[in-house]
Write a structure and sequence with these properties.
The chain is mainly beta. It is about 15% helix and about 45% strand. About 25% of the residues are buried.
Length: about 170
């Protein structure tokens, strides 16, 4: 089980991600393309723009998550994942109906995964109906999230999975 806390939704300070032994796994940092967007987002209590950087303990960029800013289309994010010398691009598109829960489908390494989060329950990423990881956030301040990696063969991709959960489920709707 991993855990992290955010004291301020619009803060650009790095936030530590801790594993179940209390060791730092990596960091989350919110970013803005320019100062105007940051000022606007702070004025709206961090509810407008969603871009994040996820780094390991050495400061290496692992995941860059950015919101596709199109106010006429469904909510979308582009996830850039840097694994060893490879670069993966994952596109998340909101697939929920009637605003009940959260759902998206994405492709990674030639396989199709489903992220589903029913109301008031854990969000899960599944592959062929097998749970890979789950995530749950407490939305009152300070925001706290728990990430549970169920399938240990995905340990190498734990920051990617956490980034997908955080970007899609913690972001403004």
């Amino acid at each position: 089980m991993y855990e992290y806390r955010l004291l301020n939704r619009a803060s650009i300070k790095k936030t530590e991600i801790y594993n179940n032994h209390g060791n730092i796994l990596g960091y989350i940092q919110r970013t803005y393309p320019n100062i105007l967007m940051r000022i606007l987002d702070v004025a709206l209590d961090g509810n407008l723009f969603t871009d994040y950087l996820f780094t390991d303990t050495r400061g290496n960029l692992i995941v860059k998550a950015r919101q596709v800013r199109n106010f006429l289309a469904r909510r979308q994010y582009i996830i850039d994942y840097y694994e060893d010398q490879k670069h993966h691009k994952i596109h998340l598109i909101d697939k929920k109906f009637f605003d009940l829960g959260e759902k998206t489908v994405f492709d990674f390494n030639g396989q199709t995964y489903i992220l589903n989060k029913p109301l008031l329950d854990w969000g899960e990423i599944t592959l062929d109906n097998h749970v890979i990881a789950r995530w749950k956030g407490v939305y009152s301040l300070p925001f706290k999230a728990n990430f549970d990696l169920i399938e240990t063969s995905y340990e190498k991709h734990s920051l990617l999975l956490l980034a997908i959960f955080h970007t899609f489920l913690h972001s403004p709707k």
